[in-house]
What does this fold into?
Amino acid sequence: MGCCSGRCMLIFICILQLITALERQVFDFLGYQWAPILVNFLHIIVVILGLFGTIQYRPRYVVLYLTWTVLWVGWNIFVCCLYLDLGGLSKDSNYLSLGVSAHSSWWKENAPGCDEGDLPATRWQSLESPALVSSLGCMLEYQYIEVLHSALQLFISLLGFVYACYVISVFNEEEDTYLYK
It folds into this structure.
């Protein structure tokens, strides 16, 4: 097994997916986003199984990982559409909190570079709720941070899908050559 074989690349991709999924899980917990917490938890379990299958030459686990990757891509496309308000979805809906709480993304209140302390007082008085005011001076608004998280997951997942297909075909070839010797 070379250091740049498909198997090693899939192991690297799985480890990268675990790191990014754990990071995403932390921020979803901070924002009480219950649907992403559950889906991320399943993702972490399946990626660990895919990693195990890749290391131990178990093609069934890699097939499970491959199947889950298709669902994971669909989930991340849904999250991108939700935060970009595409397809009749709205980032202000409570889909991600499963209607349990009124919480939204942790990044909504803690986006990098936001300066909420300098909002003019007259603007606060004319609005019904301060929650309707978007933060002034943000380097990147919260919905774009969430979309970037999902886009990164999409990119890594698509790479994982390609390498998982390759690893399964290599495992099957090795199994066939072993059976015919």
